[in-house]
Write a structure and sequence with these properties.
alpha/beta, Rossmann fold, 3 domains, four-stranded mixed sheet, about 10% strand, elongated, binds iron/sulfur cluster
């Protein structure tokens, strides 16, 4: 990071922290303080589904298959392509329709557009295959939750030859009771509490229905106690809209379909920590994302946990690590910290290489030591 971009980043941090302080005085209408208990319960149930993922997924599969549907499991997008190819070849399908493709990240993530072109399947209005992304799986009813859909849409599904749904393993509700709360949270943009229409669709013996349950690296997150909570994300996009860093850096540094605060948490695990460390550290900890998250996900906690792991796993230059160890030892020494600020500045600066000193603004020590400030405060 150059000196200029570093000072821009510091300015951005100061600005977003100041803005956050003013938000604390004037809370947003849907801030944590006034968000309904229903959303809290939804958060808990989504977290439980992630904690018991295997069990809940098996429950969904059992109920979906019992109703007449078919379930295909795919660990990666390549497995989705392989299994989809087998479906196309077996049924000799030549046409397909993408439903709401512009709305779904998952089609992009799986590269379905390119796949269909490679397989020479023509995309048209009323294709033999109807491809859709389901918003959620509901384990207790074995049905799929579809947002923004009405009864006419469901009729169209029943008329079609083969309905193929795609859903990722984390899109799981343990019981249908929470479907309405979920639709409300996902559609509750603009703080109007309007929610969005939804429908549930189960497997049926009268129309062929296939659901692809896709992992695509998401289980990498499961072993990380804090970061795994991001799997409950509703993909509503509110956090990205308000993030001051993302408003400056845009989507380009992510180079992925996942962007924003959620991408910041997911990508180091779904891709690699080394490749995405710049994204992990590009956060001012202002907390605006948490203020607007309908299910109150602790995004800062997750980013902090990733930063800690980054250091613990030694993804850092050994020379810099050595310098930081000396620095840490120095600032932890009470005796040394009671020296004059000039002296501390000299010693501190001598621990760092020119490379770092030239690229960064170093912190300045207070002119009075902690002891001096303490004595002054208590002698008043
Ligand atoms: S990710 Fe959240 S805490 Fe970090 S800068 Fe963006 S809004 Fe602030
Ligand atoms: S983390 Fe962001 S995208 Fe996910 S539910 Fe919260 S606000 Fe929406």
């Amino acid at each position: 990071m150059s000196k200029d971009s570093y000072s821009d980043f510091i300015d951005l941090c100061k600005k977003s922290i100041a803005e956050r302080k003013s938000m604390e005085r004037e809370p947003l209408a849907d801030s944590v303080a006034v968000r309904s208990a229903q959303m809290g319960r939804l958060n808990t149930t989504l977290r439980r589904s992630i904690d018991n993922l295997e069990e809940e997924l098996c429950r969904f599969e059992k109920n979906f298959v019992a109703a007449g549907g078919n379930v295909f499991w795919a660990n990666s997008y390549k497995e989705v392509h392989e299994q989809m190819r087998a479906v196309i070849v077996e049924g000799k399908y030549r046409t397909a329709t993408f439903i709401d493709s512009s709305d779904t990240l998952l089609f992009n993530e799986l590269g379905m557009d390119y796949f269909m072109k490679d397989e020479k399947v023509t995309l048209c209005e009323e294709g033999q295959l109807q491809l859709m992304v389901a918003d959620m799986m509901v384990a207790d009813t074995g049905s799929l939750l579809l947002l923004n859909k009405d009864k006419d849409y469901l009729k169209a599904l029943n008329n079609n030859a083969v309905n193929v749904f795609f859903v990722t393993i984390d899109r799981l509700l343990s019981c249908a009771t929470y479907a309405e709360a979920y639709a409300k949270a996902a559609g509750d943009r603009g703080r109007k509490n309007t929610g969005i229409p939804f429908a549930t669709f189960g497997g049926s013996p009268h129309c062929e229905t296939i659901v692809f349950i896709v992992n695509n690296q998401r289980t990498e997150l499961l072993s990380h106690k804090r970061q795994r909570q991001i799997l409950s994300c509703l993909s509503c996009g509110r956090c990205e809209e308000v993030c001051p860093v993302d408003n400056v850096i845009g989507k380009e540094p992510y180079d992925n379909v996942f962007t924003g605060p959620t991408g910041r948490v997911m990508l180091p695990f779904m891709e690699s920590l080394e490749e995405y460390r710049h994204i992990v550290f590009a956060c001012t900890m202002c907390g605006r994302c948490e203020e607007v998250c309908p299910i109150m996900l602790p995004i800062r906690d997750m980013i902090m946990a990733s930063r800690r792991e980054f250091f613990e796993k030694g993804h850092i230059d050994s020379r810099i690590d050595g310098m930081l160890t000396k620095y840490r030892k120095y600032v932890m020494d009470r005796h040394k910290m009671n020296k004059s600020s000039w002296m501390k500045q000299q010693v501190f600066s001598s621990h760092l290489s020119h490379e770092i000193k030239d690229a960064r603004q170093l912190p300045h020590f207070e002119s009075k030591t902690f002891n001096e400030q303490y004595i002054e405060e208590h002698s008043k």
